[in-house]
Amino acid sequence: MLNLIKKDFLTLSKNKSELIELLFMPILLIAILGFTLGDLLMGDFNISTFDVGIVNKQNFEADLDRLEQDLLAEEMPEEAVDELVADAEDIEPVHMLVDLLEGEDFEDLMRIHTFDSTQSAQERMEEDELTGYITIPEEFSYDIWQ
Q1: Cβ neighbours around 130 below 10 Å, total
Q2: Rounded to a whole number, what is the largest CA-CA distance in the chain?
Q3: Per-residue pLDDT, 55
Q4: What are 73-108's pLDDT values in tens digits?
């Protein structure tokens, strides 16, 4: 072990640029990380609240009917189909997503606004009233259930 340390020390002492780089790089990295992460590490890290829109394009009833038809086509018993459809109706994925985004975890981070059309959300973005918007596609719930 001592021979390896001696060999590395002799190699570094012959090449001054590698020695300077070896000493300078940790100092440079500490400075860069100190500037970029300083506020975060000192507890002064703040993100201002931003507004996000949600555009719901799905037809929940059509998705529910399609799920029921698919389950019946698979020749499942009608009681099981009725039970699965009732459970799917209680667990609507869009409401779960909106509830998650409006929950305590994100309340300090974003405010959620719902829109009927992409056009109205886009107009609000152009007026700088929204930072962005999430579009829920037409068959979102059906795809989740599948």
Answers
A1: 19
A2: 84
A3: 92
A4: 888 888 888 888 888 888 888 888 888 888 888 888
Beta bridge partners, 51, equal 111
DSSP the chain: -HHHHHHHHHHHHH-HHHHHHHHHHHHHHHHHHHHHHHHHHHT------EEEEEEE---HHHHHHHHHHHHHHTT--HHHHHHHHHHHHHS-HHHHHHHHHHSTTTTTTEEEEEES-HHHHHHHHHTTS-SEEEEEPTTHHHHHH-
Give per-residue burial for 66-100: e unless 16+ CB within 10 Å, then b: bbeeebeeeeeeeeebeeebeebeeebbbeebbee
pTM score of the predicted model: 0.60
Tokens 């993100």 sit on residue: 47
Across all residues in the chain, what is the average pLDDT? Answer: 84
Q: Rounded CA gap, 119 and 133, in Å? A: 11
Q: Which of 37, 51, 22 is nearest to 125 (CA)?
A: 51
